[in-house]
Write a structure and sequence with these properties.
There is one protein chain. With 246 residues, the protein is an alpha/beta fold. The chain is 29% helix and 25% strand. The structure holds iron/sulfur cluster. The site of iron/sulfur cluster (SF4) has 11 residues, from loops.
């Protein structure tokens, strides 16, 4: 069984409530969405990169598509005992559930946790993988920020399945984000399990992104509003960008 990867590297988690933990990141190629603020390279390339030493920015290249056994070998070549978990990220990793199921099966003996970073739009695919995953970082895409169509019902269904495991919801917000969108997200969380944490993540400026960042006052207001509906609401930026890490 083979897949296309973009990269494998060891770094610290930069987003959400697990910020700062050490992880091995496996980034899969391909995504089913095209978010306006996307800053991730998830294209299909003839090769993928593996960072030789964490934080150095020096990479080796390996051929795509890659088989599960080679991926396991690369992951095991990192100092895996020092890591909290393996982050399955993308792109959208749930487009590769067959590969991931096999990958997790071959890595179970490491004792590492499996952390899924997903756009929260593929509930059927999550159903087939949920028993293998420990932690889910799930996006709810706001039309004002991501530029996608409304997907509230799909996100609700996804969260319902994800809530069988540790899960938090992340929303990327911009200067255009409306109060009604924040309320909608909170209603979805409340309808599934009100104790699911909500992370409000201000959009990060980057080359090619032309949208507006939210003001600090707007971020505070969004948090206050959300706290009327759900008890655990955190404002957390992308910290790995502050550190200059991958
Ligand atoms: S879901 Fe994530 S990877 Fe896919 S386009 Fe949106 S931001 Fe980029």
């Amino acid at each position: 069984m083979k897949t296309h990867l973009v990269e494998i590297f060891s770094s610290v988690q930069g987003e959400g409530p697990y910020v700062g933990i050490r992880q091995i990141f496996v980034r899969f190629a391909g995504c089913n969405l095209h978010c306006a603020y996307c800053d991730t390279d998830y294209k299909f390339y003839p090769s993928f990169r593996v960072e030789d030493e964490p934080g150095t920015g020096i990479f080796s290249h390996r051929a795509n598509p890659v088989d599960v056994e080679t991926t396991v070998e690369i992951i095991k070549s990192f100092n895996i005992g020092k890591n909290h978990s393996i982050s399955l990220t993308g792109g959208e990793p749930l487009l590769q559930t067959g590969f991931i199921n096999r990958l997790i099966g071959l890595l179970k003996d490491t004792g590492l946790k499996f952390y899924l970073e997903t756009n929260g739009t593929l509930p059927d695919e999550l159903s087939g993988l949920i028993s293998q995953i420990d932690i889910i970082s799930m996006d709810i895409k706001l039309p004002s920020a991501a530029g996608n169509r409304e997907m509230w019902d799909i996100h609700r269904e996804f969260l319902r399945i994800a809530s069988r495991k540790k899960v938090f919801v992340k929303v990327v917000v911009t200067g255009e984000t409306s109060e009604s969108e924040i309320i909608k997200v909170c209603e979805i969380i409340k309808s599934v399990h009100s104790m699911v944490p909500l992370v409000i993540q201000p959009v990060s400026a980057h080359r090619g992104y032309t949208g507006k960042s939210p003001s600090l006052a707007k971020l505070m207001k969004m948090q206050e509003l959300a706290l009327d509906f759900v008890p655990d609401v955190r404002v957390i930026p992308q910290t790995h960008k502050i550190l200059g890490l991958m």
